[in-house]
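4.2 Preliminary Data

To establish feasibility before requesting continued support, the project team ran the inverse folding procedure on a target of 237 residues. The structure was first converted into the token representation described in Section 3, and no sequence information of any kind was made available to the design step. The complete token record follows.
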């Protein structure tokens, strides 16, 4: 059985490869990782394809939890993969999670495409119609933005506001300011790609951005796992 593993900045997710796509997702917070539990969950793996942006300690833990005889392939960004071309100045410097999300997105949509992933950080990446990753943006995730204001100002709270067109209290003003800034960048990137560009919105923080996005979009989860499934089709032939 082929295991797909996505070790992100704050959460570990995995799924078994089923008919070329990820099956049901499981996961845990990185702070709650337990090697014994992972070994039990992954004991049937004959191969694993994974990405890790969580550092060397987590990478070593993941490898230790896999069966000793499993074929293990770690995915990193490359200049080309699965028909996509990476135009990053230094292709290998692109985060594996961003690269895999683009690969996963391309299995769902053709043409100009924006992939906005809202997590610990928010990333906004663009594919053109020629399957080239033309560039992208990284900014603090919404929760991190809210934390920063609360931590670094004397009178502003950790906002628990609600979406509002005209915020009339401080909590709403903070939430809508931060979420609106993220949504504005997403829409700007989509506009730069031109008419017909599709927007895919992903990540655990995506729902908080939805009320602020004024263009059409498709909500999709597990893009990194989808990208890992696509990579697995090539590396495990």
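Position-by-position output of the design step:
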């Amino acid at each position: 059985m082929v295991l797909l593993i996505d070790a992100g900045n704050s959460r570990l997710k995995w799924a078994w490869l089923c008919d070329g796509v990820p099956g049901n997702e499981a996961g845990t917070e990185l702070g709650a990782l337990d090697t014994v539990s992972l070994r039990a969950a992954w004991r049937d793996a004959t191969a694993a394809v994974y990405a890790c942006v969580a550092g060397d300690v987590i990478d070593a833990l993941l490898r230790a939890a896999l069966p000793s005889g499993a074929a293990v392939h770690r995915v990193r960004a490359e200049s080309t993969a699965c028909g996509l071309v990476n135009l990053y100045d230094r292709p290998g410097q692109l985060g594996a999670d961003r690269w895999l999300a683009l690969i996963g997105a391309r299995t769902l949509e053709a043409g100009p495409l924006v992939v906005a992933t809202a997590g610990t950080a928010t990333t906004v990446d663009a594919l053109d119609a020629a399957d080239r990753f033309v560039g992208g943006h990284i900014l603090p995730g919404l929760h991190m933005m809210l934390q920063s204001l609360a931590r670094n100002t004397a009178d502003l709270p950790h906002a628990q506001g609600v979406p509002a067109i005209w915020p009339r209290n401080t909590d709403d003003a903070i939430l809508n300011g931060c979420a609106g800034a993220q949504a504005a960048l997403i829409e700007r990137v989509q506009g730069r790609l031109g008419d017909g560009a599709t927007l895919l919105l992903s990540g655990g923080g995506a729902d908080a951005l939805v009320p602020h996005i004024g263009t059409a979009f498709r909500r999709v989860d597990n893009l990194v796992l989808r990208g890992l499934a696509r990579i697995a089709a090539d590396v495990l032939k």
